[in-house]
Amino acid sequence: MRMVFRWYGEGNDRIPLSHVKQIPGVEGIVWALHDVEAGEEWPMEKILKVKEQADRYRLHIEVVESVNVHEDIKLGLPTRDRYIENYKRTIEKLAQVGVKVICYNFMPVFDWTRTDLYKPLEDGSTALFYEKEKAETMSPEDLVDKIAGNSDFTMPGWEAARLKHLSDLFQAYKNVSEEDLWNHLQYFLEEIIPVAEENDIKMAIHPDDPPWSIFGLPRIITNKENIRRLLNLVDSPSNTVTLCSGSLGANPNNNIAEMVNEFADRIPFAHIRNVKIYENGDFIETSHRTADGSVDIYRIVKAYHDNGFTGYARPDHGRHIFDEECRPGYGLYDRALGIMYLWGIWDALERAKQEEEK
Ligand SMILES: O=C(O)[C@@H](O)[C@@H](O)[C@H](O)[C@H](O)CO
Ligand SMILES: [Fe+2]
């Protein structure tokens, strides 16, 4: 397991790389150009700037999260081809600076969706919260106001540019079924996977968060059967998945450890975090400890260890603790605590294996 830490870039992240470097076992950053709109080709000078910053702390930049997919590609519009060509050029440029994994998602309009960014937990910390009834009754506009308007920080997938023409987007998706979205994803992958393969890059799709339709929009990367279907769309070692235990774990029917066992060789990148699911279908993000949530983090890390996982892992989100002012879900302290929990499990399993082999 190769531990990495998401960093939003100089001037866009309060957490300095000097602090990231001090988290035990963190080898690299998970980065992106957050000021380049989805669909545009990434400028090499901006890519090199991130590399230079990371090089100063001897942190690698092998994992990008995300090169976002333009809505026209998800909608299957004729204009998608221009954006796909830009995507290919970006893949080629990222390969030149040593990138090995590109994370992306194929969620229409919204990325992760929550109804509250700072829901108090009983320990006095706060966390990202999803209230099912509210999510099913709120208008998309209200949700954007509540979420995007409620944070001084840019949030992945909540970029204003993406959400600027919300009603046009909803109109455009009116006649897009799940099967249509599958076809558009297949078209996209058939175009970019050969380029990724030539450049020794894994394209690792991130599952839908939450793993079900919101606002009537189609969502397709939601469970084991759909991940199996995704991997078969283009049978290539470059067509892979970012297995996110927190996103998929919001549905109690998703057994993440089973998915690790089934898809191990097609998971180059693991997001390992916990959520607590309530009876009524609400969920809240918790500490990484198995005991604090509904996801069996121990069993998931054990499944990665049993499969000899040598990919990248990150703690994904954390709670907001110690009064830290941070990007929602992306504080330093609880993600660092989460990393130490994941190392604790991994190192104990490693030691037990070595003892057994003596
Ligand atoms: O929840 C998060 O912050 C991330 O795991 C996702 O936003 C993820 O970065 C994107 O969906 C991947 O494209
Ligand atoms: Fe994730």
TrEMBL record:
Return one GO MF term.
mannonate dehydratase activity
- Gene Ontology BP, a term: D-glucuronate catabolic process
Keywords, A to Z? Iron, Lyase, Manganese
Entries under InterPro entries matching the protein:
Man_deHydtase, Xyl_isomerase-like_sf
Q: Kindly name one Pfam family recorded for this protein.
A: UxuA
Catalysed reactions listed for this entry: D-mannonate = 2-dehydro-3-deoxy-D-gluconate + H2O
What class does this enzyme belong to in the EC scheme? lyase
Q: Where is the signal peptide?
A: none
Q: Which pathway does UniProt place it in?
A: Carbohydrate metabolism; pentose and glucuronate interconversion
PANTHER family cross-referenced by the UniProt entry: MANNONATE DEHYDRATASE
Q: Which HAMAP family match?
A: UxuA
Stated family:
Belongs to the mannonate dehydratase family.
Q: Under what name is this protein listed?
A: Mannonate dehydratase
